[in-house]
């Protein structure tokens, strides 16, 4: 076996080197004994602190187990010798006795007892009964929890089915309302355009009213009063107009015609003054 030793710290001190050397020696001895027992050679590998530590741990556990197995085997050989000295050798027993002994050994191994005393069997059976009861209780709890989980699973599946059906209905409703929604959006755009148009017209009308002298004091009641005054003025001036028209049928008399025309002009001027005063009075009167 070619040995390759690396990973040693030359500055680690004598204690460090002797400690690593002792571990390497233990590992080499264990490997040689193990592979010699199998009639094989130890393979070559690199001795590093990590491999040495790992193999040393394995060797320690293996040696402890080998020592325990050796002790148990020796005890069994001693017991077998005692049984033979008492005439209980395998060849001296009947087939039924051998079968019973094998069955007893199987039961002992199953119950994990080291002797065949009745008390040991009773203790083992009691322990097995307690373990059985504990297992049954755990099984009952597991079954109860399983039923609860199964019921919750059923409810979750039903809920999921309901949600899927609801989602399908919503998708169908969305598909059916896309057309009306598009129409509503078109109408909304039209309404927004109309709103801007009406606002512009309102602004134009306000500017026009401002140019013609409209004031907020001219309310509907004032306008109605002005209409009544105009009607009253027309009622008063109508006879004058009729009289003036009748004069057109008379023969021309310049002096009389001039006097008549002047008289009617005064009456017409008085009527216009009355209308003007009525309009001013209506404008100055606060609306109710």
Describe the secondary structure blueprint for this structure.
Layout lengths: L3 E2 L8 H24 L8 E2 L1 H37 L9 H17 L6 H94 L8 H28 L6 H31 L4
Parallel strand pairs: 1-2
Description of the molecule:
The chain is mostly helical. Helix content is 80%, strand content 1%. It is built from six helices and two strands; from the N terminus they run βαβααααα. The protein has helices at 14-37, 49-85, 95-111, 118-211, 220-247, 254-284; strands spanning 4-5, 46-47. It has a two-stranded parallel sheet.
How many DSSP helices?
6
Unreliable runs: 1-18
Distance between the termini: 127 Å
β-sheet strand percentage: under 5%
Radius of gyration: 64 Å
Which strand order do you get reading across the main beta sheet?
1-2
What's the quick description here?
By secondary structure, this protein is mostly helical. Helix content is 80%, strand content 1%.
Please supply descriptive tags for the structure shown above:
single chain; 288 residues; mainly alpha; 80% helix
């Amino acid at each position: 076996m070619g040995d390759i030793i690396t990973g040693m710290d030359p500055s680690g001190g004598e204690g460090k080197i002797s400690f690593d050397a002792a571990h390497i020696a233990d590992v080499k001895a264990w490997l040689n004994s193990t592979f010699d027992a199998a009639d094989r050679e130890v393979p070559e590998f690199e001795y590093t602190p990590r491999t040495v530590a790992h193999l040393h741990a394995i060797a320690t556990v293996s040696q402890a187990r080998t020592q325990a197995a050796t002790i148990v085997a020796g005890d069994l050989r001693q017991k077998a010798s005692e049984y033979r000295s008492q005439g209980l050798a395998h060849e001296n027993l009947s087939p039924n006795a051998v079968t019973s002994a094998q069955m007893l050994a199987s039961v002992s191994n199953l119950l994990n007892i080291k002797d065949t005393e009745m008390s040991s069997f009773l203790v083992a059976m009691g322990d097995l009964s307690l373990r059985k009861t504990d297992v049954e209780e755990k099984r009952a709890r597991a079954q109860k929890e399983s039923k609860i989980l199964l019921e919750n699973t059923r409810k979750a599946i039903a809920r999921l089915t309901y949600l899927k059906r609801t989602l399908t209905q919503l998708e169908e409703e969305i598909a059916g309302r896309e057309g009306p929604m598009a129409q509503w959006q078109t109408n909304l755009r039209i309404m927004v355009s109309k709103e801007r148009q009406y606002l512009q017209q309102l602004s134009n009308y306000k500017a026009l009213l401002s140019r013609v002298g409209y004031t907020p004091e001219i309310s509907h009641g004032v306008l109605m009063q002005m209409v009544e005054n105009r009607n009253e003025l027309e009622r008063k001036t109508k006879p004058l107009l009729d009289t003036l028209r009748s004069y057109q049928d008379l023969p021309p008399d310049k002096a009389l015609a001039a006097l008549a025309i002047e008289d009617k002009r005064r009456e017409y001027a008085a009527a216009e003054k009355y209308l003007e005063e009525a309009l001013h009075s209506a404008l100055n009167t606060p609306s109710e």
